[in-house]
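All the exercises in this workshop are built on plain-text protein records. A record pairs a protein's sequence with a compact description of its fold. Backbone structure tokens are a discrete shorthand for how the chain folds in space. Once this layout is familiar, the rest of the handout is easier to follow. As an example, a complete record with its sequence and its structure tokens follows.
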Amino acid sequence: MRLRSEVRSIDREKREIEVNNGETGKVYREKYDALVLATGAAPVRPPIPGIDLPGIFSLRTIPDSRQIREQIAGRKAKRAVVVGGGFIGLETTENLVRRGVSVTIVEMLPQVMPPVDPEMAVPIQEHLTANGVSLCLGDGVAGFEQVPKVNTLSVVTKS
């Protein structure tokens, strides 16, 4: 495993890669038996008004999850909105519900778990609603607003 490195080329016949070490700048070649490319990723933070307000989090890493837990505990949060009904959004929803937080999922597509066929998503959606989760499907987020009187955030959808 090579962290903070860029593979500049792959020679499949020689089973060799050219690597640029991002920390030292050294470029070297390395042989491989099996090659797994794990490019990493960053959470999508679209340019939505209010997305940088305190209390809005992206979830990608364990430290991200700890920060969310601390916010929930510190504020004694009772409600949360999860934007996105994919794998991470559903996992987050499950954990929030287990902590006693009322959750609404906002998903701009017409179903949760967009990668699966609609008929496979229906039982998932039924399970979510049976467990008290509110679904706002087919509607995207237009913005976030601070509500000072009650020290909370408001989610504005496109509809």
Remarks:
- The first strand starts at residue 5 and ends at 11.
- The chain has two domains: 1-40, 62-157.
- Strands lie at 5-11, 16-21, 27-31, 79-83, 102-107, 134-137, 141-147, 152-157.
